[in-house]
Amino acid sequence: MIDNELKKKLMAFQKNEITEHHVYKHLSKRIKGKNAKILENIAKDEYKHYNILKKYTETEVSPNSFLVFWYVLLSYIFGLTFALNAMEKGEENAQRVYEEAKDVIPEFKEIILDENVHEKKLLGLIDEEKIQYVSSMVLGLNDALVELTGTLAGLTFAFQNSRLVALSGLITGIAASFSMAASEYLSQRADKNSKNPLKASIYTGIAYIFTVILLVAPYFIFSNPMISLIFTMINAVIVIVFFSFFVSVVQEKTFKHYFFEMLFISFGVMALSFVIGLIARAFFNIEV
């Protein structure tokens, strides 16, 4: 017999197991070779875990359709490694409950063993090449974020003209994207483990330009430069959230640490640029 509190927890983990079963099943059909077989076997194990839990909850549970769609979508955008790491982060809480209840429910020892085997199998899977290119993209996003937020802030206070700031920021950003792409190419060329330096540099440049457009866009939309700057800051936070989420999943670090570190760096640079812009405007007596 299990109490109501434990039953609720088991039903939540039962839903998690059937959801992961469907994710692994979808992914196994998408890829080829031995990786597909590994994912197919893991999908079968997850379904076995679901049935073990169902024996104690005596309840049928449906998968979370949104999460199935979400993790499959992540695998298309960021690669298999990223999607599976993101999904497996949710396993930690379940593992703790399984450990606590394994003396009450003997099958939990089998589930814990399976989950540990899954982790080892997944470590050997996955397309590191795509992760490498995603890392190049994040490099471009990160660099553009830090450099351009400060530049736009300084230009806003120096010129106080949305169109002029937009044009200056766009030219500066595009020029910097070529510079960053070239730097990434040379960096990858120096790395013996790099497979395709040219492709990595292209990803970096595209990500940089994308971030530039995202940050500069408010200045083309709003005539008031201060309103434009506010929306640029909002867009910057969105990019920081994206960057922090990616790093926390791939490097298995805490999201909060990277988010606040990036927030502090980006907005610290922006604040310094505010001051530099004000000084430049006063010192050079700029009137636009």
From TrEMBL:
Annotated membrane topology: Multi-pass membrane protein
Ranges where the Rubrerythrin diiron-binding domain occurs: 15-125
Bilayer-spanning residue ranges: 68-87, 164-182, 202-222, 229-250, 262-284
Subcellular location: Endomembrane system
GO-annotated cellular components: endomembrane system
Keyword RNA-binding in annotation: no
Family annotation (InterPro entries): Ccc1_fam, Ferritin-like_SF, Ferritin_CCC1_N, Rr_diiron-bd_dom
Molecular function, one GO term: metal ion binding
Any single Pfam family the record assigns to this protein: Rubrerythrin
Keywords linked to the UniProt accession: Membrane, Transmembrane, Transmembrane helix
CDD domains, per the entry: Ferritin_CCC1_C, Ferritin_CCC1_N
GO biological process terms held by the UniProt record: intracellular manganese ion homeostasis
Name of this chain's protein: Putative membrane protein
Originating organism: Marinitoga piezophila (strain DSM 14283 / JCM 11233 / KA3)
